[in-house]
Write a structure and sequence with these properties.
There is one protein chain. This protein has 23 helices and 16 strands. The chain has 581 residues and is α/β, with parallel strands linked by helices. It has three domains: 106 residues, Phosphohistidine domain (Glucose Oxidase, domain 1), CATH 3.50.30; 107 residues, Enzyme I, Chain A, domain 2 (Orthogonal Bundle), CATH 1.10.274.10; 306 residues, Phosphoenolpyruvate-binding domains (TIM Barrel, Alpha-Beta Barrel), CATH 3.20.20.60. The strands form two sheets. Strands 1-8-7-3-4-5-6-2 form an eight-stranded mixed sheet. The chain has an eight-stranded parallel barrel with strand order 9-10-11-12-13-14-15-16, surrounded by six helices. Helix 1 runs antiparallel to helix 2, helix 2 crosses helix 5 and helix 20 crosses helix 22. The structure holds phosphoenolpyruvate (PEP) and magnesium ion. Phosphoenolpyruvate binds next to strand 10 and helix 18.
Length: 581
């Protein structure tokens, strides 16, 4: 008889980042080990055999990734992986590693890492943009080979539906995860408003972040319960805990089915006044959900997700193909393209590391300084606009000067395309995101020169309160109920209304049903959120009247107390989510 005792249940607590409950085997995703070991080897042939196995494994992974990208995005996007495969055949690199292992009798991981680093450094210095691009390909591929030599997991390789666990998840890791293999996400670091957490909510999987001790407590394949509502992770759950988790997951699925099976009535409140709910998307694949939840358009298309998925800087043709797919899949729904927002926690090879990236060379700042990045994107967006209704909005606008420069770039690209015979199907509306406090202060002037404004509350809260949105150490200070946030929002909405420019909200607050009512009460015109949140927000807003929403806003402003406001919002939503007698 097998007398091995079952491992003891271990409950770890973190911060709830995406709702729901999931059970599954753990897949440990590790990246970038700080130190590659160095040791002498006696059997050189065995070392070189390890190298060949790692190269074969890498070829297979890149081939699979290539096929997946070709299927999801088309052949031209997949072409980048052909270049990656060539790196593996590069005799300068692989031959040099073999020669050095033989000569110095050192372990292949160490030699490979040293040769690759020298190679990348030499290429990165070359004064030629095309060759410098190659440095990022080589960094990516050699990183994969090294992970294989060291036996580490990388994004996109779980192979079966799993709970993805990591110390940190970057947005490009998350973008690379195959949606059908992710049951839940758990990380040691991170916070509710990091881009990875936002992506988890778009994938509609539970997520818990800030789980200290997670990686040390887990082994690959361990059964794990992830409770995204309670912010809890249970390793080796007892039969009772498993039973509770499965019942909670089923109850939630039933509730969602009920919310989704809505009656198809137009989006209007109890008095028949319409409200507008739009979807936030990261690519064409998100549009099926947007259509299923009857979104009234796309209020935020995070165009940088394509860059993150490819982990590179796609050219105009690649972007145009993807954007056209988005416009086609939107099937007549207006799509708001947010221009590239790289920087902050969204890092790409070729983007210099910075001491303070959220305050650094991010989004519009980068685009205005790098026309070779900005203009191809604007051209690709306007080419897609020839096939359906499109708006363009600029992220991280800090004042009028930047808005004018961005508009001038757009106008110049539009004139260039018109000369080539490419014209938008309908006038392209231009907007500014309000997510920097200085922009909120001058919202009136910005609204005067825009067709619309859209408030990015995720960043606005972080910059207003000076709390890093991705740092779990200060997550409790990231409090959108702070009276400064409410007063700022009221000021932005009033400024836009004063100029007759509609103002929406596309930050995560719009996805919370209590907040959705408050935002409308404070004066927002439209709300854009991950499609998964639309049914619940719709359900609550349908059970409100203008007077209720405005009273809610007045009471929260009067509270001037974050805890009282949070409780008031919870109760407002809960009262409307309870089944009616
Ligand atoms: C925001 O900041 O609220 C926003 C919508 O943009 P992102 O989350 O992509 O920074
Ligand atoms: Mg933002």
């Amino acid at each position: 008889m097998d007398a091995t005792p079952s491992p003891k249940e271990l409950v770890l607590r973190g911060l709830s980042a995406a709702p729901g409950v999931a059970v599954g085997p753990a897949y440990l995703l590790q990246r970038g080990v700080a130190k590659v070991p160095k040791y002498a080897v006696a059997d050189v042939d065995a070392e070189l055999a390890r190298l060949r196995t790692a190269l074969d494994a890498t070829r297979a992974q890149i081939g699979a990734l290539r096929d997946e990208v070709a299927r999801r995005m088309g052949e031209s996007e997949a072409a980048i992986f052909e270049a990656h495969l060539l790196v593996l055949e590069d005799d300068l690199l692989v031959g040099e590693v073999e020669r050095r292992v033989r000569r110095r009798k050192l372990n292949v991981d160490h030699v490979f890492s040293a040769v690759a680093a020298r190679y990348i450094k030499a290429i990165a210095k070359i004064d030629d943009a095309f060759l410098r691009e190659r440095a990022s390909d080589i960094r990516d591929v050699t990183g994969r080979v090294l992970d294989n030599l060291l036996g580490l997991g990388r994004a996109g390789r779980a192979g079966e539906p799993s709970v993805i666990a990591a110390s940190e998840l970057t947005p490009s890791d998350t973008a690379a995860l195959p949606a059908d293999e992710v049951l839940a996400l758990v990380t040691e670091g991170g916070s509710r408003n990091s881009h990875s957490a936002i992506m988890a909510r778009a994938l509609e999987v539970p997520a818990v972040v800030g789980v200290h001790g997670l990686v040390a407590a887990l082994a690959a394949g361990d059964t794990v319960v992830v409770d995204g509502d309670a912010g809890e992770v249970i390793v080796h759950p007892s039969p009772a805990a498993l039973e509770r988790a499965r019942a909670a997951a089923e109850a939630r699925a039933a509730r969602r089915r009920a919310l989704l099976a809505d009656d198809g009535r137009p989006d209007a409140d109890e008095e028949g006044a319409p409200f507008v709910l739009q979807a936030n998307i990261g690519g064409a694949d998100d549009l099926a959900d947007a259509r299923a939840t009857r979104a009234a358009g796309v209020g935020l298309y995070r165009t940088e997700n394509l860059f993150l998925r490819l982990d590179g800087w796609p050219d105009e043709a690649t972007q145009a193909e993807e954007y056209l797919r988005v416009v086609r899949e939107a099937a007549g729904m207006p799509v708001t393209f947010r221009t590239l927002d790289i920087g902050g926690d969204k890092h790409l090879a070729g983007h210099e590391p910075e001491a303070n990236p959220f305050m650094g060379f991010r989004a519009l700042r980068l685009c205005l300084e790098r026309p070779e990045v900005f203009r191809p994107q604007l051209r690709a967006i306007l080419r897609a606009a020839a096939h359906g209704p499109v708006s363009v909005m600029f992220p991280m606008v800090s004042g009028l000067g930047e808005l004018r420069q961005a508009r001038a770039a757009l106008a110049s690209v539009a004139a260039e395309l018109a000369a080539e015979g490419v014209r938008p199907a309908s006038p392209v509306r231009v907007g500014a995101m309000i997510e920097i406090p200085s922009a909120s202060v001058v919202a009136d002037a910005l609204a005067a020169e825009c067709d619309f404004l859209s408030v990015g509350t995720n960043d606005l809260v972080q910059y207003l309160l000076a709390v890093d949105r991705g740092n779990d150490r200060v997550a409790s200070l990231y409090d959108p109920c702070h009276p400064a946030v409410l007063l700022t929002l009221r000021h932005i909405f009033a400024s836009a209304a004063n100029r007759g420019a509609p103002c929406g909200v596309c930050g995560e607050l719009a996805a919370d049903p209590g907040w959705a009512a408050l935002l409308l009460g404070l004066g927002a015109d439209t709300l854009s959120m991950t499609a998964a949140a639309i049914p619940e927000v719709r359900h609550v807003l349908r059970r409100t009247r203008r007077e209720d929403r405005e009273r809610l806003a007045a009471e929260c402003l009067r509270d001037a107390d974050p805890a009282a406001t949070a409780a008031r919002l919870r109760e407002f939503a809960a009262a409307r989510l309870r089944p009616r007698a």
